[in-house]
Automatic annotation (TrEMBL):
Protein name: Alkaline proteinase
Keywords, comma-separated and alphabetical: Hydrolase, Protease, Serine protease, Signal
Signal sequence annotation: 1-20
All copies of domain Inhibitor I9, residue ranges: 37-116
Source organism per UniProt: Fusarium duplospermum
InterPro entries linked: PCSK9_ProteinaseK-like, Peptidase_S8/S53_dom, Peptidase_S8/S53_dom_sf, Peptidase_S8_Asp-AS, Peptidase_S8_His-AS, Peptidase_S8_Ser-AS, Peptidase_S8_subtilisin-like, Peptidase_S8_subtilisin-rel
Amino acid sequence: MPSLRNVSLLLGAILPAVLAAPFAAHYKLQDDVIPGKYIVTLKKDSDVTTVESHLHWVEDVHRRSLSKRSTVGIQSTYNVTNWHGYFGEFDEDTIKEIEASPEVAFVEPDHKIRLQGDEEDGKVYLWEQPGQLSKRALTTQKSAPWGLGAISHREPGSDSYTYDTSAGAKSFAYVVDSGVLVNHSEFQGRAIAGHSVFPGAHVDTLGHGTHVAGTIAGKTYGVAKKAQIISVKVFQGRESSTSSILEGFNWAVNDIISKKRAARSVINLSLGGPASHAWTAAIESAYKSGILAVVAAGNGDDDENPLPASGQSPANAPNAFTVGAITSDWNPTSFTNYGPEVDIMAPGGRIESAGISSPNAVAIKSGTSMACPHVAGLALYLQVKENLSTPDAVSKRIKALGTSGKISGNLNGSPNLVAFNGARE
C-alpha cells in the first residue's frame, strides 16, 4: 500500500494555494485544475482498518483501469488523528467509483498555481540592521521595524519593540513555505531544514519562506526571538500544488505530535487559494491534536481586488487562526482579504525581514503572508510567557490582548483588532 507521494507529478502547484506574499501586482495567481489529479478525504469515523481496506480497494480499481488509460493511481496518503485522505491520478471512471465509495467524504481536483513577477517589494539590502536591546526582564529593542512596534504599542508610529525576555524560548515554528535560508545570521543557528516535498531540495530560491521565518523568530525582525524554526519546503521555483502543501502540512503535524511539541508549536501557513474541503479537515484534525495553524487571509485576486476570506482555503477553515494585513498607519492594506473569517489584523505593508541574497541580507515584502508570521510569532511568545498549552487558549488570549478600535478605513467585516503582545500592561 502506498504511503509516500511520488513527487514526479508536474512540479505541481501550491495547494490551490499561492504563497500569499506581496501585492497582487507582483505575484499573479492562475488557479488551474490539474487534469486527472484528485484529493480524496475519507469520513471522520474511518478507523485504521477501514482506511487500509479502502486504499487496497482503490489500488484494485486502479489496476482494472490501466487497460483503458495509463494513470499513476495513489501517489501520497494523509494521516493525522481523524483526518485520513490521499492524492493521486485517476481516470474518470475510477474517480466516479471512488466518489461513490461509502468511506469517502469528499473528492476535489488538485490545482496548479503559477507565480509571476518580482520577488521583492522595494529594495534588497545586504547589511544587518540590529536593534539595541536593554538588559532586563522586560526589554526594548530600539529602531525596530514598524511591525514589531505595532504589536507592542496601542497606537501606530512606534519604532521600538518591548517584549518579555523569554521571547519564545524552547518553542517551535513550522514554516510551510518556499524553504528557509537556515544559515542566515538572523536565526543564530536556531533554524533547520525539516522536510521538503521535493527530495533533496531544501534551498529557498524565492525568499518568501526566509522572510516569513525572520518575522517569526529573527534576532532583529522576529516577534519570538528565541524560537526554533523548522522549514517545511512545499514550493519549488514558482509552482507547487494543493496536494504538495497538504503533504508538507501532514508532515509538520505528525512531527509535532511524535516529538510531543504541541503545547509549544505553531504552523505558519502564509498561503491560500480556492476553498478546499481537504484543507478544512486537515486544519480541524491538527487543532484537535492540540496544534494551532496561523493562516494568511490572502491578497485578493489577480487585479488586486480583495476577496471575502470565506471563499479561500485554508483561511476559511473554522479552526484556522486567520490574519489580515494593515499598513504602518493602521489602515487595511489595499490587497487584504476580509470578512468574519479573519480573526485579527497585523502588520503586512512593507515589512523588513531576512533576505536570501546573503546570510546577512534584508528584504522588504508586503502581503498577508507578512502579517501572518507576526501572529505566529506572537502565539509562540504567549505559549512560553503565559504557559498556554492549547490552540483554544492561545487563540482566545491573542484576541483578548488585541488593540481594539484603532484601525481606520473600511474593514469589510474583518475585526477592528490589531495583534498586541501585552508587554506594556
